[in-house]
Amino acid sequence: MSEADIGLIGLAVMGENLVLNMANNGYTVAVYNRTTSKVDDFVNGRAQGKPIIGAHTPEEFVAKLKSPRRIMIMVKAGDPVDKVIDSLVPLLDEGDILIDGGNSHFPDSIRRTKALQEKGLRFIGTGVSGGEEGALTGPSIMPGGDPEAWPAVKDIFQDISAKTDDGEPCCDWVGEDGAGHFVKMVHNGIEYGDMQMICEVYDFMKNGMGMTNDEMHDVFSKWNDGVLDSYLIEISRDILGYKDENGDYTLDQILDTAGQKGTGKWTAVEALTQGMPVTLIGEAVFARCLSALKDERAAAAKVLNGPGTTFEGDRDAFIADLEQALYASKIVSYAQGYMLMREAAKDYEWNLNNGGIALMWRGGCIIRSVFLGNIRDAYTNNPDLQNLLVDPFFQEAVENAQASWRRVVSKAVELGIPMPAISTALSFYDGYRSERLPANMLQAQRDYFGAHTYRRVDDPDGEPIHTNWTGRGGTTASSTYNV
After folding, report:
1. Quick one: which of 347, 353, 406, 404 has its CA closest to 376?
2. Looking at residue 482, what is its pLDDT?
3. Contact 174, 141 (CB under 8 A)
4. Positive or negative CA dihedral for 218, 224, 230, 234?
């Protein structure tokens, strides 16, 4: 009997919690896992008494689904997703819908959308953010793929998603083929940046100012009631106050080597591909790479000396500076992320709703924060906004934070405390606000050694020019000028 509204394959933590979320919202869900004992354990355990139906084979699973069948795949990204899809395709009918809810790379979703359309099937590649708690209580959901599939899953997705304070679902259609997973990738890249910047201010307070965990806990508690109100500030506050069974701070027992699953790197690589200066996310990725060189750093610490100075001054005033520096840098990070999405939308022919994306990130996801509402307002007021930094709200916010931002970066350099993300944010801001950059020297260098040509200030759209700088090079240019 076909009775399930939707099916889900892959009963790891995220899969299980999404199923329970769907069931709690009134949907009957069929579940299947390659290790069938997981199906039985789930159905007889956490899912007991709920409208959740187990299946032990793909054929049994598909047979339990109402038409058009809606199947969500929650397995490891990459080849495992393709294997699940290949096993299901022969069992499906025209118009059935396959949904990849894992952390897939967006080119895979572009490929899968096209391949399944050719088979008469519809595909959705959706980002899901919020961790295991969000999956159970309401995640941020970022669907893209075949637009014809969206009406068939819209109610389910919006019912199970997080809601804003106004009751709006943190889920809406993102765009064609790989757009959903692209937006999730950028979300994760911004997440890398946010986390790194929090680590930098924590490092400054701890090693630059000698603050205790309790003192830093109090600072983060205060920050979470202001402009930095966000999930990551909130959990950082809790981490700073957490003690183990021996009464020791757990944070101080954790080895300083960070892991990563690759989505931040994907964002940085795509930024290079698109020619967009997403510098902050790049620095956040490299900071994790540097942390992994623990043995090298330990050896270097014995022979490489820093300035050896300590913080002197008004501590409370400088904590206020740190708050403003973090806020301004965070604005730059989101501005860069939106720059990348804007450029990719042109390249991949997506019609992205920038304000809608901010709404999707407003609740449920890891980067949720109060100021995402301001981002939504910025794009609602001006859908063609070139850059968040020139929106009146953010322009004023950065202007007000600028003096604090510069004091923080200067003091970090003076004390020898690394702030790669916060300092690169300031460098980007200074570069972006510069009408004239020193790239004229760079282009002259390129023309000098490689005859790569240049254009003149008084004729920016004119023909490329090559100068025979040495008198020996002749007039032949190697290529046309390109930016």
Report:
1. 353
2. 57
3. no
4. positive
pLDDT at 279: 97
Is 215 among the catalytic positions?
no
For helices 279-291 and 263-274, the axis angle rounded to 10 degrees is 140
CB-CB neighbours of 90 under 10 Å: 10
**Helix/strand/coil for 233:** helix
The two tokens of residue 22 are 């769907």
Whether pTM > 0.85 for this model: the answer is: yes
Taking the alpha carbons at both ends of the chain, their separation in whole angstroms is 61
Tokens of 221: 């508690």
93-137 pLDDT tens trace: 999 999 999 999 999 999 999 999 999 999 999 999 988 899 999
The tokens describing 340, both together, are 């990348």
- Judge whether 112 and 100 are in contact, CB under 8 Å: yes
- 8 A C-beta contact, residue 77 and residue 104: yes
Q: At what angle do helices 279-291 and 179-203 cross, to 10 degrees?
A: 60
Residue type, 311: F
| Catalytic entry in 191, 200, 283, 323 | 191
Question: Is-catalytic flag, 191?
Answer: yes
**Which residue is catalytic, options 38, 184, 206, 411?**
184
The tens digit of pLDDT for each residue in 253-279 reads: 999 999 877 789 999 999 999 999 999
How far apart CA 155 and CA 144 sit, in angstroms, is: 15
Dist. CA 103–CA 90, nearest whole Å: 25
What parts of the chain have a pLDDT lower than 70?
1, 473, 475-483
Q: Quick one: tokens of 331? A: 């604005």
Q: What number of H helices and E strands is found in the chain?
A: 19, 8
List all residues 6 or more positions away from 275 whose beta carbon is below 8 Å from its beta carbon.
343
